[in-house]
Amino acid sequence: MNNPRMKLVLVAVLCALSAWALSVKGIRLGKDLQGGVSLIYSVKVPIGQASDEVMGQVIDVLKRRVNPTGVLDIGMQPQGADRIEVVMPLPSSEVRALQLDSRRRQDEFLAKTQLSAVDLDAALMTGTAVSRFGAQNPSVPDLELAWQSLQMANSDLAALKTQGSASADQLGAVEDRIVGAELRVEALRNTILSRTLPPTKLSKALELSTAPTQVRDAAGAPVIDANGKPEMGPSPRAKELATITADFPSLAADLDALVAANDEYMTKRTGLDDPEDLMRLMRGAGVLDFRIAVSPSAPEGVNPETMRAELAVKGPRSGEPGVARWFKVNDLSTWYDKPAQLLLLEADPAGFFAGRGLVAGAFGGEIYILLYDSEAKSMTHSAGNSWALTNARVGTDELGRADVVFSLDNPGSQLMARFTTQNRGALLSIVLDDEVFNAATIQGVISSTGSISGNFGPEEIAYLTRVLTAGSLDAKVSNDPISISILGPSIGADNLSKGLEATVISVGITCVVMLIYYFGAGLVANIALAVNTLLIFGVMALVDGTFTLPGLAGVALSVAMAVDANVLIYERIREELELGSPLRAAIDTAYRRALSAIIDGNVTNLIVCLVLYKVGATEVKGFALTMSIGVITTLFTGLWVTRVLFEIMLNSGVKRLPMLPTVVPSISRFLLPTVDWVALRPKLFLGSGIVTVIALALFFARGNDIFETEFRGGVSMTLSTRPARSGEPSTSAGRIGFTRLAMEERVRQIGARAGDDIVVAQLKNANVLTVGEASADGLGSTFQIRVGNPTNLPSDFDETRISRDVQAAVVAELATDLDVRMPLKFTGSESTDHTAVTRPLEKALVGASIGRPDTAAEGVGEFRGGVAIVVADMTPPVTVADIAERITRMRAQPDWSSTAGRKTRVVGLEPSDPSNPSGAQKSVVILVSDPDINSFEVDLESWDRTLASPEWTLVNQALTRQASLDQVSSFSPIVAENLAASAVVAVILSLLGMLGYIWVRFGSFRFSTATVIGVAFNVIVCLGFLSISIPLSATAFGSALYIEEYRIDLNVVAGLLTIIGYALNDTIVILDRIRENRGKRTWISRETVNLSINQTFSRTVLTGGSTLATAIVLIILGGTGIRPFAYTFLIGLIAGTFSSVAIAAPMVYSRKEEELERARAAITPVHEVAQPV
């Protein structure tokens, strides 16, 4: 393609594609830019099994448990051979507002569909039933007429009895009227009360698929429309919502508004509400049970038809406790093979499953199967049964067919042997997390190893293997994460705004410098930079890459590298023009001679990026991906796009290309010095050696404290103070303020008082930093606390306790000053036995129902028949509204969706301040009612199992949930060791890769040695600066320069590797000019080294200056999240520029070699003129 205009069209197309990708797919933000949580779990890989296969199965199962619909942005990926990282964004304030609106609409809708007996009877007695509930139920007017007829009949009977002269026939006729009216009232009343919307039906309907279903004919074949396309019918959700609309036609508009609000929330929702919710779901994954299915032909102890009718009205919570329960079918597609079977399944689920020996029913658009719940016909983890499935794999049965083989531990083997002996010949159902996955006939006694065989296809085999693998999660996945990293949405938003601001300004400064220095050529460079930036973002969107805070820095650095490519070319153009070459020839020569330096410099950076992406953590991977893309786009824009623009300029008749140095010759003379760098070697090397020794001494003096918690193990948390009250010291943000030293002293006192608690005692050595800006008097409102892990832990110590215990101790100490919701302690909070704190609400007054007649005198009302949960002796005391809000939030979580719509009321029992009975409470009672579960209508065992017990669990989890701080990072000792090892490996691999490349490219070990020494100097200087940052940060000088207490973390490692690549690029540019100026000689003269350094000095100043500006802007505006990276890069940039010019380049000269070569050639030294070759 030799036509420049066609090339320009190609560039425009690539830019348009990038813009399209950004508009359609958008940019995925990492947790450090939007807030999020990263959890790492350990996985036990069974001996003899492939790690990749086991990790893939475990991740697949966990995804189905934690994110069954796939709508949440919860990522899981293996970390090494035996760890899994789970990443989830946290909701923004906008998403939380949408959630509250959706939840409010659902509650209001359910309230309109629910009608309690107490409210209905009260309305009948006051004659307001029609006005209050007539629009809600068409039978209410008939009931009110029947009620009035009953009252009139009762009045007539009373009047006859008062007269005393009525005959028996008259009295009998009126009594018959009363009986008839009573029957009529009772029938209508029961009809109205039964015609309510079960809360689970609404929540299930909203969760159903919105994809249209395919219409099929009587034979089960797809129906084709007139256009030859499959005819599509309403979606499962539309069908279910239509049934709700049919039952409540007057609420159709409310339902539409509710659905719209829910859809908007679900569209913008990307994760769960809280990190604790994610950890709770991970903890509850993989509960495997084996249950015998109820036979439709020979049921034992149950009536399938009656239970199916109750299922249709009350949902799956209906059932016979201890006898049989309903369980949802996980995936209907695994139960049929042909379209005709699907048609039968959709038309008659009960008949379809009856043909397979199972009792089935439908509720809320889902299919349920009836399974036994008795101890003899179920093998579960309840009642103290502790067993585990340890393995599941694909095998082969005696007929050569694929089957699924599973293994049990010793307790499981004994239970299974007894269980299968008692139920031989029955249908055994596999139940995972209360969902039915399969049912197979027990053909023999199973003990330690069993198999499931049949005419299974590959998909069915994979399905069963995955299910049983999920059942062995308890034996494979750690119960708690071994590493926790949490960043609140507010900090993420702050990082994003500051990072973007810093990136935009740094790029803007670079563009202005290029325009001022290179004039028209600078405009070409700026156009290429704009194309480069657009391509980086566009490619990131196309590959669904994640932008992290270091990734934004990667964009800025990519721009700096692109500038370097332009500067190399432009300086060559200027040199050629000064030698009198025509513009076209000058441009051709410049691109040809700059090519090797540009490629070599970018390839070394690409090597660093590939290593970082391979061994780095999530945020560092974001930087590596961004920089990798930036390297490729830089080569494209720097070598191709700018060339196309120059070709268009030349073809348009442009003959001159003025630049600032050509317009102002003094600038050109200043940027072409005549320094004898080789002569300065002794002084430069001595000074470098002294700096190196001092930096190493500072580094080793810091000891283990130089490392951040992720490399030495420990906990880092960021917390904010509450709004200040009148008279309290406050910051500009209006929050209560503390000095850093005061906060550090309070935290260290926690450790000093810890006694024998080896974990909390570590807080006596904690470091506290102020996050964000402090006021003029040193007051801050956001602090980061860092504490290392204890050493010499017992071998059986649970390391997952470390983060939990440290957080709890800090939050408890600072509770009155923090802006967090505290976890509560109360009577029974650590017990699993709820019977001591739950009571049925069977008396008129709340106090009487809970055995405290003197404490709560209000009536039970609509909660009659529900459960009362007594929460006594709470620490710290909280308000009734606070408890109600906690319970509402917990009930909205996915694992509690089955309880949606239950009514809850919190009643205070014991105020902490008797003079303020409506304030914080020490004891409360929580009332909960469910229209389908009433202690007067069901037996107490069923009431306890379906209402009292789960509600106690929900309340306990809601009130004891750990406080969510702004940021939490926790690294167990083993994780810290692995991260440190990974960082060392990253540095070593990067160095080996880059140095090997240099050796091959330059063909000289001396070049590689000089490069190694220069790189070592850069790294050591950076480490020395990090070591001295703590004492400097406490001074006015340090504060003025934005110096904080920096330690080596993953971002610093990324900065070190980046500066290694940048310094190598800097060195390569000079070494490449040395190689060029050497020509065909096999040795390097003193004059060649000096000449090459001086010739590239202008490029060093321009590129170094623009990159220096980028680093400074990142430091000033990038915020605390990016500052360690930026400062590491700044110091490394200065040291790297110095080492390239003053160490590496002069080191390639050997006086002995020059004298020897000259003697051999009998050449008299000739002074070389400072001219480019």
Q: Cα-atom Rg, whole angstroms?
A: 38 Å
Shape: elongated
Helix content range:
40-55%
Tally the helices: 40
Parts with pLDDT < 50 across at least 5 consecutive residues: 1166-1173
Note the topology:
Elements: H1 4-25, E1 28-29, H2 31-34, E2 36-42, H3 51-66, E3 75-78, E4 83-89, H4 93-113, H5 117-126, H6 129-133, H7 140-163, H8 168-194, H9 199-207, E5 213-214, E6 232-233, H10 236-247, H11 252-268, H12 275-283, E7 288-292, H13 304-314, E8 319-320, E9 324-329, H14 339-347, H15 349-354, E10 360-363, E11 366-372, E12 378-379, E13 389-396, E14 402-408, H16 410-422, E15 427-432, E16 435-441, E17 449-452, H17 458-471, H18 473-476, E18 483-487, H19 489-518, H20 520-542, E19 546-547, H21 549-578, H22 583-615, H23 618-651, H24 660-663, H25 665-670, H26 681-702, H27 709-712, E20 714-720, H28 740-752, E21 767-770, E22 782-788, H29 801-813, E23 838-840, H30 846-849, E24 867-871, H31 880-891, E25 903-911, E26 921-929, H32 940-960, E27 967-971, H33 973-1002, H34 1005-1033, H35 1036-1040, H36 1050-1078, H37 1086-1095, H38 1097-1117, H39 1123-1147, H40 1151-1161
Parallel strand pairs: 1-19, 9-16
Antiparallel strand pairs: 2-4, 2-18, 3-4, 5-6, 7-12, 7-15, 8-9, 9-11, 10-11, 13-14, 14-17, 15-16, 18-27, 20-22, 20-27, 21-22, 23-24, 24-26, 25-26
Helix pairs in contact: 1-20, 1-23, 3-17, 4-11, 7-8, 9-10, 19-20, 19-21, 19-38, 20-21, 20-23, 21-22, 21-23, 21-38, 22-23, 22-33, 22-36, 26-34, 26-39, 31-32, 33-34, 33-36, 34-36, 34-39, 36-37, 36-39, 38-39
